[in-house]
Fold each of these.
Amino acid sequence: MNRRHTCGNCHLVLPILSLLGTLSVSARAHEAPEWIWQLPGHTDFVTSVGYLGDGSILASGSWDRTLRLWDTGTWQLIRTMTGHTGEVLSVSCSPTGETIASGSTDETVRVWNTQTGELLFTLTGHSNVVTSVAFAPDGRTLASGSTDNAVRFWDASSGVFQRSLTGSMGGITSIAFSPDGDTLASGTTNDEIILWDVQIGSHLASLTGHIGDVTSVAFSPDGRSLASGSKDNTVRLWDVVNGTSRTLVSHTDQVYSVAFSQDGRTLASGSRDNTATLWDAETGAFLHTLSDSNTDVFSVAFSPDGVKLVSGSSDTIRLWDVEEGTLLHPLFGHSDNVNSVAFSPDGRRFASGSADRTVRLWDTQKRSLLHTLGGQTVYSTVFSPDGHTLASASFDDVVRLWDVETGMLLRTLLGHTDEVLSVAFSPDGATIASGAGLFDSKVRIWNAQTGAPIRTLGGHTGGVNAVEFSPDGRTLVSGGGDRKIRLWDVETWQELDYLSGHGGDVLAVAFAPDGRTVASGSRDNSIRLWSVQTGSLLNILSGHGDDVWAVDFSPDGNVLASGSADSVRIWNAETGQALRSYREQILSTRSVTFSSDGRWLGIGGVVSGVARNPFWVRKPKWTYPRR
């Protein structure tokens, strides 16, 4: 038989989610985040999920014939409810969160007490699979839809049958109440949507236009629009009053599920093409594609607060951050590759260094250009800890120091005999370190106030591509073309240790905020995490398909960002788990950096279009559930 995946209302309209025996928690991405949490327990496809009341509990239904309740604060299993003799296809939570309804292939609807897990009612009457259940907004009525072509209404408090809505020429695949409870929409297998008057049970209108089964329906929060997904690979937005529709095209296979955000501004759809797509609900414009697996996305649903989007596929459930993580604010102006980007400590300024021989200073709030600073090809930029000075390293063998407020050149640091590839301030702002190319291969230490040279550090046998001070200022790390990472004692400037293992030039290094871990990126396409204390390799992060030019930790140390010619990737810094990937518009990333508050990720590189420019993206608000 053809199993249909649909769901009713769980305080909001929450279509179903489906996966193989696990639930997972993640955050929304512009393209491809991966889950960061799994909820084991189910032993077969999870066909439906929904939030109870304020979202503190998540309910799931499965082909294993059970319902499970999960604490969304700890992601621990609260209880398992058994009783169905067939697969559970749909769950719907009452508006108060006190009861939950489930529909099953056993042709019954069951109503459960969420506090105790007790079965309250078993509702019989359908003569075929119950595909969808939904509570009315006032919680007094429960509706169920079935492949027997009927919608049945039940008294939610007593389980008493009230009436049936008949007349559909096809099986009912999905049902949804309008926000005022006056109208019920049902999607059918004969390509149409039927609107019903709930009070008198009459047929109001039929919405036609799809050329395949209507698999999902959802009302907008204001009740004026209805979204539908179909086996014809399209999403349609309908004007409920006049019946006209707009067709949204992006998916390349049948659409299983649709859902509106809490504020009604965003529409999500899930498809057999392995993606969830976000749309502007007002204009129908395509916003983003979310994809992190090679399996169908059977359903999508927004959390009650509208901040998270849940997507369900044949192997997992993922929770995405709706407010964060999308690429925003391109800053146009550079005419060649952007090799370096940096935020000022207060986050008010943003610097970019380019192969177009300029450094540009930007106002991050207004996203406007403040200063254009001249020079040669710029490989690295960094702000002083007080934010007053910007250092730039360039092709002409020098380090330049700039006044951030005026854009004036303060001094030039001379001494390197090859292009300067990297530069860093010590945490107290008193010292500058710089690394040079192959024909120099030295790290030089400078007095930041006077520009006077302090020490030259030898050891690398290839260009020094990256330098960075530890957060406590006691250690300097450098990465080179000799495939080595070297640790230096800042007090004596003696080499403490060298870390080897990369199979290509080390292009980037970064200390974790606690100073105990160093991350490195290399031409071998990998990121490595190292223990500073022991020099031992902690983890290898694989996934990039090209040179890794940049790495940076978030301020809380939970997340690591990496930049490559193929993408920007976000990783769980503790486990090495891949969380997210940004690919759109990025042809080659040369630099990534988090703002000091962790809200923004700056990216510089080669970007699609004539103008190559830096741009920045919101940092995802990752949630790490307690174990």
Note: Residues 1-38, 312-317, 324-329, 607-627 have pLDDT under 50 and may be disordered.
Amino acid sequence: MPVVFVIEDLHWADASTHEFVRALAAARAPRLLLLATARTDCAEAWPGERMPLDRLNESDARTVILATCSGRPLPEAPTREIVRSADGVPLFLEEITRAVIESDAVTDCGDHFAVRGGQGDPALPATLRDPLRARLDRLGPVKKVAQAAAVIGRDFPLELLQAVWPHGSGETLARDLERLVAAGILHRRGDHFGFRHSLLQREAYDSTLLAARAEHHRAVVRALDERFPELAREQPQFAAHHLARAGFPDRAAPLLVEAAEKAVARHAHFEACGLLRAALAAVRALPEAPRRPAHEGAILLGLLRSVIVVHGYAAAETLEVCEQARAVASAQAPGAFQINSALVAFHTSRAEYSRALAMIHRNRDALSDDPDAESGWTANETIVTFCCGQFRHAIECAMRTVRLYDSVRARAPIMNFDFKVIALSWRWMAEALMGQPETGARCMAAALEHSAVAGAVDTIAFARYWALTGSMLLHDFDAVAAAAPGDLEYCKEFCLSVPLALTSILYGCALAHLGQPGEGLAMARRGYTGWLATGMRIAATGHLQKIAEACLAARQPEAAREFLGEAQRMLATGEEHWMCAEIARTEALLHSAAGAPDRAEEALVRAVEIARSQEARWLELRSTLHLARLRASSGREPEAHAGLASVTSAITEGTTRREFREAVELLGELGQDFQPHPIPQIA
């Protein structure tokens, strides 16, 4: 019988075990596979084929983190910090993740974790700190060289270390560095050295006495000023880090802002957040001065933009930065409109629609003569009124937003989202629901074109998501499935967690309807859980209804009932009404699946009435189509025909779409052919 003999962590084995394994390997038994894992320094001494195990890539690292959290996702910020700190080592990923979820940094929300507060590196658990410290302690006097190098950074040129570490001769330093390389602390590439792992550098830095640490930072600053000015120009972040730690916050702050601007230019907003927080700390370390609030306000405004990209509008971090920015900025200061707009978006994103609408009216009154600001408030009102089920009002707001937007010549910097893109995108969805899908589609095409001109990655990502949403509302599952993979890749490329989660919901639901229920529902559930972790609640009833209907398509009525029940609870306690008709229709589908046609008909009648009251003609058509089928199945063909003919005759657009064609076919089956209206040409 073939035998597979597996030995984990051979480097920890005692001498007798080593001798036994060597003898086993030397025997080369034909039906024995000996598989051992060991550290590199141990594995090199063994015979046989060696297979180096590379560090995990980011995708695999995130999988380990999610598994360590028992499938309950962490927010994006701590996840990225764990990935960065662990540097691809599975043990480090697991231990740091456990330390984070057991700390005060996050709150356990049952099916996900939410950020409680605090920024910066995740705490290093004792299970990692102790062995790392022991490795450094075994170095003896050479440890001090490692500590000086750690102050410079994870990677450093030999020439800079020589300037920071003046003790002994160059030959002595070279020998010490070779010892550190041999001990596996450093690796070497020509005249450049680097710590083999970020946690080794971090532990070496943390174990350095504060006085020695400050002196090393001052030595780096002197070296940059006197010998490496080009390095400071090329790497402002590096120079700023040492200036701040050496006690020169006045010089550090502008360099940190410069580095943050470069990070934003390459869409590295997570990095920009850290840099701007450091710049803010540097400015606040300066003595009080007349211009300090202006500097602080400008940094906070930049920080707010990047925080929104990384965490989303609904995150606690967004509110925290908004409040700080508003505290240092006057009502008429540059950026006041952007701050207040972000606050409105915060409340809208959390489905606090009355509060958001009150803020819109209050700010609109204060800036009534500014068409640029007015276009922003009206764009926000478009979203709020849509979510409240006032589709015609939303369309009117969207049209007014575009008129105002196009009338402005000098536009203030936007807070992440272009108002014209918002207006056109939400008009697409409203027009689709009101039975004007072709008009809406033209609006969406214009929104996508304009988003490409605007150029902000989050504007582009959300425009693409809103395009998918309209297709999903029209039950165009093929269109969603065709576009979603590219949209997901775009979100991943720029680390946009909110549109990534939302697009995953839509793509998963579309796959479930298209015959891939397992993969589709798993993706939709992951997307919804990830979306909840961002703090977002806007349009939650719609997400729940879509997943519930996808569960029904996958013949999972119990799961559908769970999601629909949550949507109904939100309807009962919240202000969101845009999906009321669809929730009632999905309830009817559940009753039909359970063999309760009377209750199904009651729910469908309610769905039709709601859709009619909201002027949502396409939703009225959909529910009426279901109702006509139900009535026809019980021998009530005339009643079925009358209701369906009435709503179908009022539809003037979308006559080639599947649901309309099905309605026409059913009318023919019920005894009367139907001639659709020609589609009018709308400018």
Note: The chain is about 70% helix and 5% strand.
Amino acid sequence: MAVASKPPARPPRLTHLVGYAATRASVELKRSFLKHMGPLHLKAVEFSILVLVASNDQVNSNSSNSSSRSGADSTCRVWPPQRARLTRRTTGPVPPKNTPVDAQALIDAQARAFLRQAGRLGKHLGVTQRIRQTRMVAVAWLSYKRKQTSNKENEFALDVRTNAINRASRSSAEAPPPTQETQPMTPRPAPFLRWLQRLAFCTVALAAPVAAHTGTPLPSITGPIAVTATSYPFGAADHTLRPEKLSRHGYVEEEYFASGKANVYDWPAPGPAVVLTPDAPYTTRVLVRRPAHGHRFSGNVIVEMLNPSNLFDLNIGWGLSGDHFMRNGDVWVGITVKPVSMVTLQTFNPTRYAALSLANPLPLTDPANCATVAADSSRSTENGLVWDIYSQVGAWLKSQDRSNPLRYARGFKVQQLYGFGYSQTGGYLYNYINAIHPLEVQRNGQPTYDGYIVAVAGGRFVGAVPMNQCVAAPPLDDPRRQFNNVGVPIIHIMSQSDYLIGIGARRPDSDVFSDRYRHYEMAGAGHATPEELYSAAAPADIIAGGRAVPPLACNEGPRSRFPSRIHFNAVFQNLDLWVRRGIPPPHAAPIEVVNGVPVLDQFGNVVGGLRSPYVDVPTSTWSGSSTGASFCFIAGHEVPLSDAVLQQLYRNDIDYDRRVAANVRRLLRERLLTAPDAARLLIQAVKFDVP
């Protein structure tokens, strides 16, 4: 019986092969840079782009030194090139050495050729948005080669080309096999390191935007501080109301002390800030939760000013999105930013936290040391040191300082730094973004933080705070309470507890590059969540710090169990996509308000805002405000719908499950929900029994 012959294998697409080859070559290139030159702060995909630049036919031809030939092409038998015996392929006579060439015209023509090639490959490699920056790389590379016309040793650098990319080109059905005459070429004596040193010049233009601390001073770091059974960080993950074992997720927790000098600022309209008292010494603590191994690191660092509203540090960002951070491989950093929290720390463990200080640089006898301060403040300390602390810790996290646990030598590479503030510290971010962020850009040529999430603060609800403890916050109608043309993406998110008080913070969304902005309002979500207490220090530690334990219940019942984390996880994910890939977040209408009163549906839930199955496929009425002690007025609560109403709404369990699934699919498609949260919501729906 005749056996049917198999159809000939379809040759792989050129873009696939070149993309694969460039990625493989970039791995070796990145290792060599790290080994011989140290970190250059380039992303893996940027190393791939450099390989494409170095291996471009037009980039490696028409140079005026002895290796330049019209239509030249070169190949390496293996990678890296120091192991290769090179051959020269030519299609015509070799022009004489040092042929005069219009340098600028050559650079422009070759840069344009590279841009065309990169544009074709950009979509496959996921780097289309980087093309504008990589043009600087192409021009720098070509300019460097033109300056080397008298350098014989540079011939080797001009002939470098990866074997994998050549094979990809020859294997493609889109390019017929070349018919070229091969001439032997004497092996070049230059080592691979010399080629790397030359290639390093073209990385400067791309590496420069990532360097973050050229102007911002770095703090002096002590730590990580030792942990024992009796001495551990306040709010440590394994000493919370609901303890976490981070090692199960491949994470570790470390506490550091950061010391330096910070200015006290004033903030005259319209801004930015001006120095009032310079160089006040400080020492604060920095809590870091990170992957134990660098290969799991996403490149994202979320830096949170720890909320001091309960007179001690709350790890709210971690409490809301810690699971998301660990799934993604993000690093979370919390900073103690207010003197009243330091009092709690030093009461909790006087020995461990003895060095902490946010002392007022002005003596009590100085007339500039105001006689009246807020109830949670003291004349001997200064709340206004927070701004430089936030900048300096951010600069440290982006640096290669030996004290940085995220430095390159430890296997980490910080790519994006995101600022996060919640409630009171969300108000702090208003001040920082509008008053200090411009100074950081001016000082460094770029921002320290690559994006911000300003949570549940705005308008009359902590829309800004005093710049120092002797001045008032900006007036309610002051433009300093609004974000405009900050230069980095900002996502502003409010809860059902505070959107109406802070309605003055509303402004249109924007995709303009200098004014990237989104405003969200979470329908059904409370401000003071149970998660912020679950992730806070254990009640015994709070009492040991001399503070009262906030209540988990109000007069109407337990704090609202509405999982605002589903919205925060989506916000973190969308901010990262916006910064990294230029993908704008989805829009969402605000909660509807008529004559200062929210519009409610037939079940008592608000209309508009960020939606979820909790309000679109309801089983309860969600309130954003309750009565009782502490922060119950912004805690909110839940009132379950009656059995009769549920039976009218849903025929059976399957009907309810299908409606939830349809709602979740829509939110997932619109990127208003992450995939893990979508799965969790579906599981919860299956567990719910319709009466």
Note: Residues 160 and 270 are 54 Å apart (CA to CA).
Amino acid sequence: MEFINNSYFIFVSVALFVMSSLMYIRELLKQQRHYIQIQKVKEMEDKKKRDFISNINHEVRTPVNVISGMLHLLARQDLDEQSMSYVEKIKLANKDIKNVIDNALDFNKLYGGDIDVHNKEINFKSFVDSLREDFCLQAKQKGLKLIFNIDENAPKRINSDEYLLKAICSKLINNAIKFTEEGEVIFKVNLLQANDSVVNLNFEVIDTGIGMDKEQIQAIFKAFEQGDGSKTRTYGGIGIGLFLTEKMLEAMKSKIRIQTTLGQGSSFSFSLVLEYIADDLSDAEICRGKKIMFVDDDLINRQIGQTLLNDLNVNSVILSSGEEALENLNDSFDLLIVDIQMPGINGMEVAEKIKGQGYNDLPIIALTGNSDAADLEKYKRSGMSGCIAKPIDFDVLKGTIADAFKNTNTVSSFKKISKDVLDFDSDVSSFSAAKGLRLINNDKSLFNDILTKFVKNFEDTPNKLKYLSETKDFKSATLIAHSIKGISASIGAVPLSNLAKDVEQKFKISSKADIDEFVKEHKIVIEEIKKYLSNNQIEEAPVEKKEGGVKDLVDLLIELQDNVSRNDPVRSKQILQKINTYSFSVSIKDSLSKLKEFISSYDFVEASKVIEEMRKTLEE
């Protein structure tokens, strides 16, 4: 009986335990279903919020893009200086709105778990040019130097997520400009390591801005914070740029690094290990052996162009006008480089006429001192393949020519090339020989020759400009100011180039320009150049001469005339040097001096006349 009672008690206890457990489980399941329902509702609400924000942003973006388009068209009009200033200010305000939209969309994606990395091939030069174009106006408006310092060994093509990489770099550059009132902002890319398939690139943005203390550093990576509340009021923004930057870098398996000193500036950097695509041929190899026509109305620019093309091992033909270009064009040419602003037929007219003659596949590159967005669009419409801004930089020349031959007629070929190429040191003197020499591959002999021609051709420029201004010949004054603008930059006289640009703009709108500051700077530059030339004379090595007869001289003159008729300055100069190694029984010193002068100035018509006179005299 006792056994039965115990069994009953155990049975009842187990039954009660099972029942209570089932009830507890049922309650848990009920709570779970309720929680799931709440989560679903919350997720639906969050999705609605994200969709709403996304839709609002897209709706705002549409009119913003319309404004951008209208500003682009407006900038192409012949506006006066004040109107163009208004356009530039509207562009910056419009860009600020787009930045806010982009940040909001990125923030929305982040909380929706939509930040995925999608790697694809990127033209790295195009990528950098795009960043430069996006921020050059913003930096200019604040009076800041925007310098791009890219490792020459960085790969030309990489595999990465272009959207994320550009968003990260843009947010860092934008912040640097925003929080810097004077000085400079530098965007650097250094190659840390490379092997057969991957590279480690370090990206860095350095500014001379307000800097931060330790407390501010801890706050800036939190959403909707900018170090302290006053920053938002003073500098604007919504305080999510660096928060998003950090999250995007995490998605790309990298981290951001900061070095900063309050009141002195900051450095933000990160490293990425990326796959790269090796080029089959280097730019120099692509250019080698090509036949290129170079057209510029200015003697000094022709001399610089011919020397740099010679360094590329190309067969160059140097001409001085659009008329000569059309007259000499034939199927043997691989590429044309033409100055845009020339008397007579200008560069765009040359391009249009050439395309109209059936040379549709001939790459044409614009050579210009005007390379803003409106100008670049005009060059593109006229059938050109790319643009090189003055002063001509050897690496830019090489890369642009190579891109044209590779048929990479992309936006990058028409990107504005800002003058940061000259900002490789802190020298802001009136005349910097180091800058001028850098642009022509440190050819000291050529540099002295260019400086001598600059003094000869431009010493009287202030008087010419004053006269043209008084006689209201603004068109001629504009051409002179435009010419000295590009050439001054080419020899390292950057302040004079900037003043010439201002004078050119004022003459362009047919108003009497104040050239007093230009005249003062011009006088300083001329004096500095004369001083440099007197201290840096290059003595020519003595030439050991050998005896030569009349027949030897005639044969050499025939060869010279053949190259002069083909407008080939390189080969013509080589033959002149060969003639100079002979000692002839007849006196040809005066004639050789004339030949040297005409060939050096690319006046092949007059050079041909001298050769004909020499041959006629010798053959009598």
Note: Residues 2-75 form the longest helix (74 residues).
